[in-house]
Amino acid sequence: MSVDAGRRTLVGVGVGRGLVVGPVAKAYPSPVIPAQGGGDPAQLGPAFDQVASSLESRARAATGALAAVLGATAQMAADPALRAEAEQRVAAGETPAEAVDRAIARFVDMFTAAGGPLAERVTDLRSVRDRVVAVLLDLDEPGVPPLTEPSVVVAADLAPADTAELDVRQVLAIVTERGGPTGHTAIIAGQLGIPCIVRTTGIMDLEPGTEVAVDAVAGTVTLDPGPEIREQSRARRAAAAALESDTAPGATADGHAVKLMANIGTGKDADRASAVPTEGVGLFRTEVLYLGRATAPSQAEQVTEYSRVLQAFAGGKVVVRTLDAGADKPLPFVTQAGEENPALGVRGYRLVRSHPELLDTQLQALARAQTETGTTPWVMAPMVTTPAEARDFASRARAAGIAIVGVMIEVPAAALRAREILAEVDFVSLGTNDLAQYTMASDRLRGELADLLDPWQPAVLDLVDSTARAGLRARKPVGVCGESASDPVLALVLVGLGVTSLSMSVGAIPAVRYALRHHTSAECATMAAAALAAQSAGEGRAAVLALVHPEVRETLGV
Amino acid sequence: MTERTVAIASAQGLHARPASVFAQAAGAAGIPVTIAKQGGSPVNAASVLMVMTLSAGHGEEVVLTADGPQADDVLDSLVGLLATDLDADV
């Protein structure tokens, strides 16, 4: 932790891994409408037009996610329903500035009440309001001032249109009072590789020019930071560069190999993932190919997609998961309507009960891709519950010509019977997200149950432990392909429990590789024992963190 | 009054990019088009804000309506858009 005792620190939610020091540059606040209102009714339409066309031209000049969100904001400024409502309000006697403000406030209320992805768009709506009202009141356009030196940009909330104005070479970090970790500001900061802290109470009280240290890992802004934080910032930058430079295969300090692999969903992902140092694919989610379709993809189409992935990792290890539909991933041609508890219903491998042809077609397509590319996929079924299901899947897969067959361990029943399941298949892979959901009886989609779904929960780790031990006894690989593999500290515990491969999003691999490289297998085993002995998820994490080498904690900012 | 019913094909539902593409197409149609959820009140299909407030999810059915001689052609092309996964390839 980089908390500097005795100095004033503001706390928010950090996004990214950076630690930077620099002066504050404040974005101009949104215009305040005078009590008597304001604006010329004849200018209402032109004001909307001016803002929409200015945003459109900025969208055309931008690229990637930024261009998309700018275009979306421009579309809001040009929205016919919004404009009609503002015009009606003016006709009813409101001044144009008030009319725009209230018309947008109504959409803000609707979007906020709807929650989810709609609530994340409220920032864009407010940006439209501020820009149109500023035009009507003849004020300077709200947003970020021109930056003359590398600065920490501070704002109540930053609209995508504001970030478009940023000279990114001069932006050290972005800190906002509002916004969320999955909102546009955080996403774009991530895309630009800029450390970002959102929901930072009190940040707008800072004077422009104030020196601050922004730690995205800790989620802190420290005022007037001392030399020790500046030194940490330099060390963090050097460490991040060093992390990326280690491209050797994953292993502990004493040379115990642990495969570090990528989770992918499409052939395109495979092309991207094969460009960075990994030891193959630990989870290829084939359902992405099936989503948003009225019928299943043909065998020929599947062969093309699977061959593309196998070719991207020619001769390497690619673990393919067969169709995992149902629950939160419904498909129109398989999902049964009216399931009361879809997470406990006909999903994953259980679809073989109603649609065996889907699985058989997929297995045949994978076998053909294996023949065509000369690379042997490891093929596993999701949501297997009993050894009998594992046996049935293995015989179907082998009959289709699949050489290496496995199953996922996501259901507590399968984890408890891992030994019997491993007798039927060549490998298993733990899906820790679903394993936590089923072990803790907590819906993965319910944010308020996040504490119960914590992969550090000792009950979840007990099941990982028994599965890993069954693997060691059977001398068969046990991988982890859930979120928990991407936490560099939890990864040490998983390896200590006997897990042989870790699969995660490509971006998470350098930190996990670094953590493993700095601890021996014996140290990982000690951490595993500490995590299992804990009374709670929080206690387990704290106990393990205390065993992590201090320089690793410092480098990773954990 | 011409009417079409179609299930939303986009994996994330009628949000973000799919809503934007759809509202743009409806706005370019040249005639007023409305969209409603089954049993819900119709809204202006050219308004991305109103379309988003429908919160129509993946697989959910929506009803499009329009009037006049062009209505069939316009609705056919809009139905085609909604029956495509507009989240794909981004």
Brief account:
Chain A is of the alpha/beta class and 558 residues long. Chain A is 46% helix and 13% strand. Chain A has 22 helices and 16 strands.
Tell me the distance between the termini of chain A: 7 Å
General form of chain B:
globular
Largest sheet of chain B: 4 strands, antiparallel
Q: Quick one: CATH class of the largest domain in chain A?
A: Alpha Beta
Neighbour order of strands in the largest sheet of chain A: 1-8-7-3-4-5-6-2
Could you say what the CATH architecture of the largest domain in chain A is?
Answer: Alpha-Beta Barrel
Q: What percent of the residues of chain B sit in helical stretches (DSSP H or I)?
A: 25-40%
Residue share in helices of chain A?
A: 40-55%
What can you tell me about this protein's structure?
The complex is a heterodimer of chains A (558) and B (90). Chain A is an alpha/beta fold and 558 residues long. Chain A folds into three domains: 111 residues, Glucose Oxidase, domain 1; 96 residues, no CATH class; 315 residues, Phosphoenolpyruvate-binding domains (TIM Barrel). In chain A, 46% of the residues lie in helices and 13% in strands. Chain A has 22 helices and 16 strands. In chain A, the strands form two sheets. In chain A, strands 1-8-7-3-4-5-6-2 form an eight-stranded mixed β-sheet. In chain A, strands 9-10-11-12-13-14-15-16 form an eight-stranded parallel beta barrel, surrounded by five helices. The longest helix of chain A is centred in the N-terminal third of the chain and has 19 residues. The N terminus of chain A is likely disordered. Chain B has 90 residues and is α+β, with helices and mostly antiparallel strands. Chain B has one domain: Histidine-containing Protein, Chain: A, CATH 3.30.1340. Chain B contains three helices and four strands, in the order βαββαβα. A four-stranded antiparallel β-sheet of chain B has the order 1-4-2-3, with helices on one face. In chain B, β2 and β3 form a beta hairpin. Chains A and B meet through α2, α3, α4 and α5 of A and α1, β3 and α2 of B.
